[in-house]
Amino acid sequence: MDYLQKLTQQAKLNLFVSLMVTNVTVIGLFFVALKLGNFNLYIVVGILIVISIIVSLIISSLLGKFLMQPLTALWQVVFHLTPEADSVTKPDIESLTFGKDLVSNLSGHIYQLISAADKASQESSAKAKELTLNFVAQNLPLPLFVLDAEETIRFANPAAADYIGIAVKDLIGKNVYMVLDMAFASEDTFDNWLKTVKTTAATASKAWERVRMDVRDNHPTLLFDLAAYYNRANPDGHETMMLLFDHTKQYSQDDQAISFVALSVHELRTPLTLLRGYIEVFQEELSGKLDPELQSFMEKMQAQAEQLMAFVNNILNVARVDDDQLELKLEKGDWPAILNLSIENLSLRAKVRGISLELSVTDGLPVVGVDQISIQEVINNLVDNAIKYSADSKVIKISSHLTNDGLVETTVQDFGRGIPTAVLPNLFTKFYRDHHNRSQVGGTGLGLYLSKAIITAHGGNLWVRSKEGEGSTFGFTLQPYDRLSQEAKASGDNEMVRGAHGWIKNHSLYRR
Amino acid sequence: MQETNQPTRKVLCIEDEHFISELYARALSKGGYEVTVIADGSQALTEAETNAYDIILLDLMVPNLTGIEILRKLRDPARVPPIKAKILIITNLEQREDVRADIEKQADGYLVKAELTPHELVTFIDNIK
Fold this sequence. Notes:
The complex is a heterodimer of chains A (512) and B (129).
Chain A (H helix, E strand, L loop, with lengths): L1 H35 L4 H41 L18 H40 L4 E4 L5 E4 L1 H7 L3 H4 L4 H4 L2 E2 L6 H11 L2 E11 L8 E10 L8 E7 L1 H9 L3 H27 L5 H31 L4 E3 L1 E3 L1 H17 L4 E6 L6 E3 L1 H17 L6 E8 L5 E7 L32 H11 L4 E6 L3 E8 L2 H10 L6 E3 L2 E2 L9
Parallel strand pairs in A: 9-11
Antiparallel strand pairs in A: 1-2, 1-6, 3-4, 4-5, 5-6, 7-15, 8-10, 11-12, 12-14, 13-14, 15-16
Helix pairs in contact in A: 1-2, 2-3, 9-10, 10-11, 10-13, 11-12, 12-13
Chain B lengths: L9 E5 L3 H13 L3 E5 L2 H10 L4 E5 L7 H8 L11 E6 L5 H10 L2 E4 L5 H9 L3
Parallel strand pairs in B: 1-2, 1-3, 3-4, 4-5
Helix pairs in contact in B: 1-5, 2-3
């Protein structure tokens, strides 16, 4: 408190000195004026009053500024610390001539007070933030993993531990790939993504669907969606965050059957399989022993069962195409042999309608890249169509030759009613059927749609040429195996597996 | 078809659909095979473990043990001596490609019942050496 007393003394002294100066000046001048001559007293007093006012003004102005120094400085100190008053500069306490001790002392206290308050509020907000984060991470009902730059697990929440059946303490410090054995739907995997973003991005995020993970023996495979966030600049080294959304139940149900359609088709196929099996037994045992009419009935029965089976298979395959599930394996195929077999299988269906199938194949065709099962469906569909639309004509010509482009082209030609030009462009659309013919000919309109998808996946082309009244020709091309395999090598693909909507990059739908 | 000087090949048909097994057994017997049919999964596993077969036809949907479980147990690498039989999966169930690929890795063949007649099945087995 010394400096406060000292300051009071100083102020008193200053005031006393100034008052004394004023008084002494006025009295002195009055005295001099009286001594020097005969001045009118009124004039002298008047002048003195004026002088005393002037002197008082000067002194009070100087003294006021002087005495206000500490207060001004303190005002500056306080406002300098207030965030709203940025324009107030920090006072230069050292240069104060009056109240320097007081100001430096008080401002010291003010600074301390403010920084203490600041620290307290910062601490409490950091604490609150930490508590919130902790609360979120610990109680998040989704498995959460946080990795560092070395892909070591730095954090895993209880939900994560629960999900994969490993305690949190056993997860921390492990390499993520040692713990999470994930398999992805495509080459676009989590580790590939992480590798890429580490070299190309500061922050990135991505999500994957239908990730599979085998966690432990005798436990069903986990199926989930994964979301990941990457931040290279994170100062504490927590670089990557992984969040898992479990869909094991839902996805494994999907695994059991593609869809309702697939399930229904399965139910249809079982009795049909049996029906065909038993018809085959009759065929074997009774062939040649029946009278011609019964023999033809049996053949018709077999042909219809086959056609029904082909139809059911079409439905299933269209469902697969639509679900992106139709996957073709292109292998080396002896095309004349494949074509021969298919036509042989179809001849019964043609025969029961009194139609004969004429097959001609040019010699020396190259080995084609073909999915044997699917291509048979294409041939079935085209020949079935030709049978349906043959009307009264009794022959269907199937031929195969090499095109100028080196492709193997196969055509199926009927001599029936043909297709109106107007409807040709829509022919390969799902459920499209010629209006004109709908009442007369059965069919689902799925066959050509499916055939188109299958041929496209083979890298070929399906086309039609038709003239009303003269019949239609459907043709498709297949690529030589050598050409396909070169193409596959060029695109870095060593297995030739394709989806109906284009290339599928890796062989197994799920691969590490 | 079998050559006459070779021993009769033995087939174990694990299938619970009676009509299917009846048709297959008939066609296979006609084709010169000795056929045993078992409908129950666990019984079939015991049978396959006890007696030597050349071919095992395995339906994926059989009671008590699924075909996949039977396949896994028969193809367990720890099994001494290993089961010599060729295992052919027969199914009408549509599998996702990945499930099918898993099965195909362990089995010697994967046949969709709807895609072949009993006669064609015999031809297929004839070609398995």
